[in-house]
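G., before I forget:
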Amino acid sequence: MTDKRDENILFFPGEIGERALRARLTAGEDAAYRECYQQYAPKLMRVLGGILRNKARAEELLQETFVAAFRSIGNFRGEVSLGTWLARIATNRAYNAIRDEARAKRTAPPIAEDRVALLEPNVEGRDLARKVLAILGQMDPAKKLALLLQAEGYTVAEIAEISGEPRGTILARLSRSRAELSLRMVQAGLVTEAVPAASMQERP
Amino acid sequence: MSECLSLRERHFGPGLDNPADPVWLAHLELCQDCRLAFQALPHVDCALSEIARLPMAVPSFDTIAGAAAGAARSQRRRRAVRRSAPFFYTALGTAALAAGLIVAVLVGRAHQLAPKLLTEGAEIQATSEAKSAVLSTGARIRLEAGSLRLASSSSEHQSLVLSSGRVSLEVPKLPAGSTLSVRTPDAEVRVHGTRFQVIRTGKETQVHVAEGLVEVRPEGVGRPVQMLRAGESATVASAEDYREGLRHSTLAALDHGQFGAAEKQIGQLLGTSPDVAQQAEAQALLAWSFSARGKRSEAIARYRQSLALLPRSQRPLWAENACVELAILVQQESQQQSTGTWAECLGRFPDGVHAALARSRVHSTK
């Protein structure tokens, strides 16, 4: 069965596996909590890292997300998938953190933060991804979130659930974000090999 | 600029590819930004997938192990409370019943009331106070709540129907071959000569036996018959709860690769008179089990049966998955025949999560 999987398809084992995991979580099975963390943490860490651009803060929020989710797993009714639910908690916390930080900066003198380049230790040979993450950091937060979630394989419907916005809005935002990112990548010289040099020189 | 934005929304979305649009082609001739961005679009997808592949150092689970263990303990406590509640109420109910019976006997003796004879088709209701009646066999009935009907009465068998409420019976030793039963929506309780009580709540039936032997037959194929002796009680879950339990254990069995056990449970589930949507999902689960065991043709037949059963107006995720699974299996049998199946997927779930895949397979298999 596994050899027939297509990466775009949600197969029965996925949904069944998730329901079984949910049942084990609500039954209070210790091992299920570890499995849930191991299954969803890497994906959420990338999303949080992309939003916050601060590794230490992303790790902190990742832990807060799972602790909050585990405490309220009994109230999770399964209207959306477990992954979508966790992503919603994580992104809400990330944006709350950004808002809090912005408010603190307005009222207090700037403090030299120990900001580390996110993912720096892990990006050897991943230059393109690192540069694109830097470009995403300059984009509108909502557009950045949509692109990060798309990168992690969430569907339009799931991104809509996570963002709490209509599906059509998300689809339009994704199109605009992809166009903007594409243009920014061209301007940053990341795709020169695919674009004729003459076209680039014609630009004002 | 607004034309750019509008056209970009139509041509830059994930999975959108309509290069033959003449308006778009004409626009690309004129707008250099759109042209450059569109040419570079494949690099966007490439870069996004690179981001998803970035190795990520995730903090160890041990950092939240304490909190997770606390949450697990809390869940177990909540579950234990939910489980013990019915036993507590059963014990309470039994105590109340015993007290009620004593009071009833004392009051009955004091007033020397002759209870009414219940005939076939007759119904008694206990709205404000308990009602008493006797059957032609001499069985004494005390209805404490709800309504009770004598559905059939012959020399061999008498059948009472309790749709909801609480009834206590005192049945004298019946002649050989003769039975008396109380039916609720969840179970049939058969006796030969005994004193017992049946309580039908919203979701279950409770039986308490004071004397003799009672046979409890839950509704649904494969559910075990229970024999209760004096002092014993039983609670029969509703068919719906029983089905939900079976469904849950089937999913767990499939998840652990125990296909034989899963198929047996699906058989039991189908024997409980499930509604059409439940039947359809059960058939899809059976199909998936067959598919996992390499029985492709049986799996195809079951998937077809499942999708035929489910009304087209209902579009749960499992049905869309089943439709795609079916199309993939058909494609493995015959590339040509699969076009129709993919088209069926697309027609039935046009906005589904697999719509883009179905659309591309329809084009590629034509």
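The CA atoms of residues 248 and 265 of chain B lie 10 Å apart. The longest helix of chain B spans residues 65-111.

More on Monday.
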